[in-house]
């Protein structure tokens, strides 16, 4: 469903999983009942779910929401709340669009359901005067979610209403789902870097560089949130800053591209994208950048998802 | 045009500096440095061509290091210098980038302190438009030779030759430690703590250019003395020399301090020579001064005797001596710690009173945790007096050891009759008799003399004497029995005891 | 002395080795019963260099039999997969993504039961012995021949897998073999479970094949211990191999590359194995093949094994050469000896180019004498450029990298590739696989999520390294020779106590050899 032309009644429900993608989620697999349970619990709080929207198109959550929509026989919006993948809930679009994330329903790895923000909030109507409040709700929910993740199995389903479908266009980042699946096909079919070029050109993206990973400093190893790796070949030296996601690329020390642009690190042989934790020393990679998908509140988006939101002290650079 | 290679030329830096990205345009000989700037990691200063950036600290913004390397390249700045303590941050991708962009990145093996020292030295070097600092450095190296020179004197001579004026080195508000030929004294005002800036025209109508520096807690001054009518350029030149020289002097004294134990024995050796009068006075005084042992001027000697050996006592005493508001000297000697307070001129009675009060405070502070006794000699002038005063102080300390805990502080002046008696025992007619009286003891060995003296000093207490001597009571008792036997004396007799006591005192410091 | 044997699909190669020195090496055709082929091969070895079977200290066998059988779905037994993790994981039951033919070949039976642990070792739910017994009864009814047991986070705590296996063994009897996922794979339930199921499916074959190995050696009078090569170039004992045949899956390319390293005396190099149709390029770092970055599928089944990173290009001895001097990727393959010009055929192949260029002597050189000199030069150059580009893709630094050429088609390669180091062509390259098996060492590996309390990182890292070393020693390594060859730590976000996934591999020489 195109969010810009959605006119149906009812609300869009955001769904996703928060937690560590690599460890717990790959071991303690979801039972499959978590998303329906979340939507059912939301219904009891007065949320009339008529469409599903992924929390974030990046990583596991993009596909998870599609699977959930199929399970629930609901349409999925071609949109998300982040335009990419983001680590903090208060970076997501409701937090700066005047839409509260509360009440939210959490379902943990054991199938237990939790409601955050007990007040029944049938229709959270976008209201600019409520913006500050919605950001606070985002931070509050983020803290709760992290606590639940720690206390339970390492991941938790997060769901909440993002408002009525007719007004959802003001909240979400549109057209990211189809864009992502288009890129998935392009990368799966890619045989060479030159084969990739026309697709990059069409969107204003570019290859930032390629080579092998010559040094790596993983995030968290020395207690710092941000890690980095360098890519070198005969040409320029690339440095990619990363946390859970790739955040910035400097070419020969000049900042070439930062969040919220989409930074992809591809295996140089298969052109399949790598996660930050999959980067290994000596791996051959290609680093590409795509312009971000933007919501209507473009400036707020760039501010909330730019380098500063990850604790990096520089201005956003978009391709 | 100064190059990075010139700045890194002194061996101390050359051996510790690794230039990443060296080669090509980053070869140190090709990198021109016009300014040395201190930068705190994470800073955003605008850079200019020729800037050498000396970076302090670390930042959680890891990328900053790469950006810095890039900014250096784009601005035409000379390069980046960091210390190895921060290698984990700076040595990662930034080092790789420096290599790639041909930016000189100097990794200095050492701490931030070393960086600071380098920066200070490099700045002086850069501000030398006429006198090439390389000349100064070469002179220094020539003076230093392969090893650290034994005294600062040859180094001062080299400086003196460079600027055609006398050079001196002293303790701030304290004595003069070293100087070139032409200087005899330096007025106290030139040694006073001062705010850096203009040269000082002192009462003696010379112009004094000074550079203060610190080693540990001690503050020193390196200065040049010029004729009052010297041209401005000569004064500036002298300023550069003392500034650069102070870095070396600081290192020299620091190494001296590090070699604390070596220093102690060196000081003792010098002192022994001074007291024996076997070395030429002038060279001895210079060596003593180099060792921080001012033999000239007035002294108030003291002696501290711990009841038992205490590890690290030297440091405790050094610390306690901070109480004394004057220059003090302390060295391990004769099983205790000898020292004196230094006065550049005769101290007034009030000043002496004040210093003795301070010394008493030193004793009280020390005696709180350590069983120790302290003796203070009389004030006087010159090496000969110092020898006597030290012996006197030691006597006083031994006397003090026989007193109750907490009251083991004796000032020779306060000994009154004892002191008179003691000084009489030093007189010509008494000595031969005393020596004859004690002759039978010579076969038993020196420790028997010491035992007897301690036994008498402690009013016939074997326990107290054993403590003073650091032996067992039974040993003392056995020795005393033996002495009684050999000398055929009755120690129960007050008269015989006094005669023995005086004889022992009289012969104590003379070769038997 | 050791004997290394490579039991391949076509040939059984053996080598007799003393240290890193090859004393003798032979080839014999592989036979259906395997034993005969091994005996024939050993006969050949003995003919080349007589040895007393009592002097043999160890025999190492590398084989691709198990991986071939699995991929071809041959000789697999009826398997049941038991997963402990309820109420979690139900959405993705065991074998959910397996190709239909493999599901059919293995019976495709799966069970979910309570159990499993959290990442930090807490129980998800307790193991219910009665539940396991009920499942065992159902397995018996359905004629299950082997069981694979997996439990959520068993790499952190294998307690439930072990207990469930005990119950199953009691209920089902010794004839049913049981594979535990925690003994096989790393973190990542589906990949680990898949490996355990594949392993269980091969259990009957493992008994036969490893038994055959042992019998043929015993018949030959060799009483030395038998080892099999594993994926990562290390060894396992015969008893372990009976239980974990899957551990041999990618030992083929690994042995080939490690053999090339020994033959050339190089520890860090690129290895180019030129076959009939393709050239496989791998990189040796510290004598071990560099591993691939991404997950590998075997016969369409996703596993989380790490495999050697091999890059293949379509150039081999049988590659077709076009009129424009383009070489490959099409090839005459094994028909080279009938279709190439020099062998009287009508197809211009890369081998013909090599003969025309004077790089090799085979067949009838006069049949390629007509080829234009510039054309031959261009084709030779093309081959060199393509292989060089392939090696370049694989290399990780611009430092000179020596290249070791092995395989029958290596005659196509020049003495130096553009932009690369010297080309090394070792003797005996035809038996590189068997050599790779013979030189293999004993390894120990851990891959776990650790909880790193503040200030304890060094301790945890030391603990992990020690655990890897201990595992290597348990497996038979000489402690003095064990060293860590691979270490990686990845902090996991969101989790308390700085949960960090640590992978560590230790390798050492076989004790007593």
TrEMBL record, chain A:
Instruction: Report domain S-Me-THD-like C-terminal positions.
Output: 139-316
Gene3D superfamilies xref list: CV3147-like, CV3147-like domain
Q: Which InterPro entries match?
A: S-Me-THD-like_C, S-Me-THD_C_sf, S-Me-THD_N, S-Me-THD_N_sf
- What would be one Pfam family of this protein? S-Me-THD_C
Q: Residues in domain S-Me-THD N-terminal?
A: 11-116
User: What name does UniProt use for this protein?
Assistant: DUF917 family protein
Automatic annotation (TrEMBL), chain B:
Q: Ranges for the PucR C-terminal helix-turn-helix domain?
A: 449-506
Instruction: Extract the InterPro entries matched here.
Output: CdaR-like_regulators (IPR051448), CdaR_GGDEF (IPR041522), PucR_C-HTH_dom (IPR025736), PucR_C-HTH_sf (IPR042070), RNA_pol_sigma_r3/r4-like (IPR013324)
Domain CdaR GGDEF-like, residue spans:
277-399
One Pfam family in the UniProt entry = GGDEF_2
The entry's family comment says:
Belongs to the CdaR family.
| Name of the protein described by the UniProt record | PucR family transcriptional regulator
Which lineage ranks, top first, belong to the organism behind this chain?
A: Bacteria, Bacillati, Actinomycetota, Actinomycetes, Micrococcales
UniProtKB/TrEMBL annotation, chain C:
**One Pfam family linked to the record:** Hydant_A_N
For this entry, the protein name equals: Hydantoinase
Sequence ranges assigned to domain Hydantoinase/oxoprolinase N-terminal in this UniProt record:
2-171
Q: Which species does this protein come from? A: Sediminivirga luteola
On the tree of life, the source organism's domain of life is Bacteria
Hydantoinase A/oxoprolinase domain sequence ranges:
192-392
Q: Which SUPFAM superfamilies match?
A: Actin-like ATPase domain
According to the record, the signal peptide region is none
- One term of GO molecular function: hydrolase activity
Question: Which Gene3D superfamilies does the UniProt entry name for this protein?
Answer: 3.30.420.40
